[in-house]
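Researcher: Let's continue the batch. This sequence belongs to Alpha/beta hydrolase fold-5 domain-containing protein, and it's 478 residues. Same format as the previous ones, please.
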Amino acid sequence: MPGVTRYLVTFGLLCLQTGSGAVTVTILEPIRSFGDEVGLIFVPEAHLSGDQYNTTARAIQEASHLRVWVAFTDNYFFGLVTEPELHRGVQQAIEEFKKAGMTSKSYVGVGHGWGGIFLQDYAKQSDLKAIVLMGATVSRKTQLRDYPVAVLTLAAELDGVTRITRVVQEYEKLTKDMATFYRGLYRTPVIFIEGANHAQFGAGTMWSEIDKGKDLKPEITDEEAHGVIGKYINDFLTVKFSSLEDQVDEALNRLLEPFLESAKKFQPFLDIRNLDTDGEESMWTVLAQMVFAGEYRDRVAISNKIAENPWFFGKQPSISLNHGNVVVATTALVTAKIYSDSLQMRTDKESPLEVNMKLVAKEALWQALSGQNDTALRSEPNTCASLNKYALFLALTLSTEHARERYFSVGRPIIVEEDAMRGANFLWAPSPLQTWEDKDGLHVRSIAMATPKEHYCKVLSTYRAMEWVNIDSLRVYP
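Model: Same format as before. Here are the structure tokens for Alpha/beta hydrolase fold-5 domain-containing protein:
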């Protein structure tokens, strides 16, 4: 995010110098007369006003035994949070808390989307004791265990702006942390909110206008979403700030259940992501070779190695016999996008662009198994298109039952086109997988090269198929 941040810092300083875009703060006083105090400072999504978080804040207050003060920061220049204005807004909120009678110094930043991205950076050296990220995350390189204050990450299932596959990475960080620090579950929880979308972290009613219409249609009401959000934020705050052991124990127990339920939602995304590649091998390529082996898959031992360019160009699959069984060694190149925390790229897909597979051809398998009942192998030629269909099958299989039903009822389908053939490796290698969207769905055409010995395929990433099923198929086109 360096380039964007540098621009916005300069922009923010200009605003301060000219006196334009002065941040304003509105205070919402506690509804409880007694209890430990905590002050929430809301930092809004781009182009949303502070008052659009009123219902979210009140849901937190109603769920909590704490005395919850709230400050809505607003009037950012052009509706965009910048670093200088954020600092000014937080300091002003703290001063307003004090004037209104708050005596505690338990200040918590609550950031939504764009605001959350700036908040997570600002909070590292600030007066904030914790932060809540709604439809936002800490930076990719930041480990949750190393973050200096407690952080709650809330992920909406139908968030079309900060997609669920981005938050999956935060869940993965948390599970790794818990291997050595179990209380990370309570210090840095990552929680999945079923049926909610990005806009429902705020007022919710303008979901189609957020981020140029990239948000998805929610399946729960705004009231239901705010109730769940208020409950999870309260439990997080109670664990961190309550002085009453009974309240803390109850909140700890309440946080455990949504974590376990969230794990059921997040883990399938990690599982299918690791099918594409774990960095050393591609199990997706192994499965593809098994598809090509057909009914003889039980007699074929398959391995895979990931290669990078330019070495992948010269790699070839191999086949040999070992005590009557066929041994196949495949190679793959997983073409990934450049991942970034850039604000302009926060809606981007997290999955690889394509998977390049160099497989052993069916004819070569037939020759290795000569003398056996091989008529099926010879009569049913393989296609790379069949692998794209299998990628979709795997994505649907690993998705939840409700996600599958949603895809078939309202999602645009993946449409697998016939392979585009190339006559040689030097023609196949530079040709990317062809994909395009229209009102009918996502069209996918593999680039293929077939010889009697080898079958090369550029195919859909299983993780990209998963993203399409769960996220992109649900978008309104165009």
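Researcher: Any comment?
Model: The chain has a mean pLDDT of 91.
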